[in-house]
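Notes to self after the call with IL:
- keep both proteins in one doc
- input above output, always
- annotate only the second one for now

Protein 1:
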Amino acid sequence: IPEVGVKYYLRFATTYYRSGQEAGSCFATVLYLKKSLPEVFIKCAHSQDQKQIQEEDSRFYRYLRHQTKPIIANDIPDSHGNIEHGLLPVWALAIVGSSYVMLEKSTENTGYFLAQIRAAKQWIRKDSAVEFEFIILLHETPTQEIDLCHMHLIWIFGHPLTVKYICTSENHRLDDGSGQESGSAAGTLHEKGGNF
């Protein structure tokens, strides 16, 4: 689109991260603008009942909310690629939170994936929110650089995640951003904010 950017139309299948089973199919449009963040619109047809998905999310949320001792962990996965079973919920939450960071940092020519959680710490709250601090490593392709990001997220069930982050790459460039992510294929909500 002259003077605006490039628009892509995508159709793709989704799978459940843990089981590898088919989750549904999606159609998306991505508009890479010349001078701002990409605009993403997505619509998905789920192969699993939405009520069942809500129940699974609710169980996951209750598990995190009812921790009496904060979850504190390092190196997820470990140097052999293993994740302790009890830390799978922490890994899942980091994947959802980091997807916002990756969306904001990605361009038409570079992409990211979550390589490792260096450190995770849960903050026990008296309200209904789940709160975590993460130090994560994002692997950039095709450059193969590793970006270290400090990511803070808050989740209240039924609401989008609030994600704030600061990243530095191997060449010490400082990027920052913050926003919200719904954590589902229903769509994303972004809101710029300050550093944390």
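Protein 2 (the one to annotate):
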Amino acid sequence: MEVEVKLRLKDSTAHQKLSNILSPYHKQTLFQENIFFDDKDSKLSSNAAVLRLRFYNLNSHCILSLKAKPTISDGISRVQELEEPVPLATATESVAKPQLLGQIDSKIMKMVKQEYGVGDEFVCLGGFKNVRAVYEWKGLKLELDETTYGFGTSYEIECESLEPERDRKLIEGLLEENGIEYDFSDFSKFAVFRSGKLPGWVKN
């Protein structure tokens, strides 16, 4: 079970301000491209499962993941997640020919077939790009995201946590002390992608 604090930032100005504040704690920046798949009958989506290939740093390597049973409330996300590395050439080819996914020898693909009844008729749903700056701050690993969809850009700070309520308060304190506008994330990035529009901003 992956548990994360997820707080949405209002705009690029808030993102840049937080980036400047956290710059002394910067560890690395990752360039990610996320591509999603389902079968022709949407068996995964209809069961709240997400199958993803994530390419890192201009295709240096790729990770296959399966997320299931997601919940998100008050800025805290919980989801079951499995991850496995896959050969870059195989992953790249699978984007153009999704049926090749079914031929990957992995625990994830076996689970997709056995638990969700998916055959080899995969379809590519498309995806989005993300720039993730990683910081180590007060014992927390903070991930500051700039996510580019086909319909706009969103900004978010995430933190994987064993004590999410405590860590959420720490992060909220950082944002509030510096006048950075934020709100709790209500949707995963995949849900935003599938909706085709950015969530509205209602918090003043």
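Annotation: The beta strands are 2-9, 26-39, 49-56, 61-73, 76-86, 122-137, 140-149, 152-160, 182-184. The chain has six helices and nine strands.
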